[in-house]
Fold Acetyl esterase/lipase.
Amino acid sequence: MPIDPHFPPFLQRLVDLGATPLVRGDAAVDRERYRALSLARRGEGYRPEPVADVEDRTVDGPAGDLAVRVYRSGLGRVGGQARPVVVWLHGGGWAVGDLETHDPVCRAVANRLGAIVVAVDYRLAPEHPHPAPLEDSLAAVRWAAERWPSAPLVVAGDSAGAGLAVGVALRCRDEGGPVLAAQLLAYPGLDPTMAMPSVEQNATGLFLESSDMRQFWDWYLPDGGDRWTAPLGTDLSGLPPAVVATAEFDPLRDEGDTYAVELAAAGVHVVHLPGPGLVHGYFGLTEIAPAAAVRRAEVLDVLADLLGMPGVVPEEAAWPTTEPLGAWLERGSARVAVDLRGGGLRRLAVGDWDVLDGYRTGEVPKGRRGGLLLPWPNRLRGGRWSWRGTDLQLDTAAGGAAMHGLLSWQPFSVLARTQDTVTVGTVLEPRPGYPFRLAVAVDYRLDPDRLTVTVRVRNAGTHDAPFGVGMHPYLHVGSEDDGAIGAASLQVPARTGLDLDGGLPTGGRHAFDGAVGTIGDRALDDALTDLVRDEDGWARVRLAGPAGELELAVDGRWPWLQVYTGDTLPEGQRRRSLAVEPMTCPPNALADGADLVVLAPEETWAGSWTLSWRPA
């Protein structure tokens, strides 16, 4: 599978390892291939992460001796509290995988948590279908509960093993124990029907394929499933607290997302950690994917917090962890990338059409492409303004104006995620020139024919806070060369433009004819208002070119638009797309007081805009 260059680069490395397809349909062959792949993924020069002790032994299982491997981190009680015992159930579709394939993961879990980890070599399908793997897993959990009766007991696993962990948690609830302190589930397999959208969206090319899962389910459940194997939609009340980690590019993504939602609805404490930019199996990809290593550590840290465990002091100098650079959504042929530096839009593609003139992962874009502009959009003359008798000074750009707010390079976090939505957010802390504290969240919803963006702002400070908001998408209708946007046709629902000099208002206004038609050589960098709205209260900009037609619509919270043909951008980026910027206020609004939003402490504001497309 050729990997899109906008994807994380480690995905191509994974494909190069021969990871797809995993299943040949012969269980014995598949087990050898999976073991070989597991070794290859560790990379050249791999050395096992040292732990204090590793013990291979057997315990009593339903069919006789059951092999387990016990990892000890070397940490005993801390502050009088016993370290946790984690029973780890490996992934592999209930048919492949063993103690060796998941040895690196279990070592990492033991060391990160300062825990005892019990890895279980449960019987495998198709020779031993359900309920044999579940019965073995439950036997190991019961043995661990008897062996370490005072320790917090966690059932955990990845993929098929996470599905087994859910079944074990349900059996423990319904059969009187043992009592579990938590369940840790990495990208669990929970839906034998394989009916959720992510199964089709991520069907091929990214290690685990949907056809692999179909074979695994057929092997595991030849006689059909039950509530232990298909828990979604059943009674989940009374289960232990859960940490649920999912991966963006994973056929099983929606199953884990849904389980987290249903746990919360059942009153179970749950922490859901999506994996932006990551694939199924990322717990075992840390040698080739730095983002996987970061996220795995974060998932384990969340479990430690949930258990109330003291942290493990690192032996080496600590470094700050980093989030992935972006979050993806995919619906039908449409895909959108949200940049977690600044919270704006990095890319929107529909099939082969880049609807937004965006930029590559990690690049610093010119012209604030796709950016979120807050607490003011556009320019502020000299960076100077005053608020209620206090003169304030903001840093200025080379042109002598303060440009486009304070969030362009600020880290955002993923706050929430479903199969078609992602919410990112940050807190704008007070600083010289803007002594106010704002909590900012952006909701992105992707449908097959439309992107909906809602910006939300809350005054998280103690004084009234003035601000303005803008966003800066560059609309691309197939014009690849400099100047080619001139062939596009434009309609703007505005009747009034601001008189500007160098992008800053001079005090006057003029009539604007929004029926622009073919753009031609016309240079646009106009702040526009007096918007013409349809009966639903929305105003709509329409742009058409060789690739298709775009419609950008704004609700009543956006009384201004900035339209910019990109004439001052660097060579190779000029006049190939059109920036259409929803704004709550015009340039220099902080100084002029024009259409500023002012929020009292804890008061909120929200405004939405949409972008829809119709390919040629």
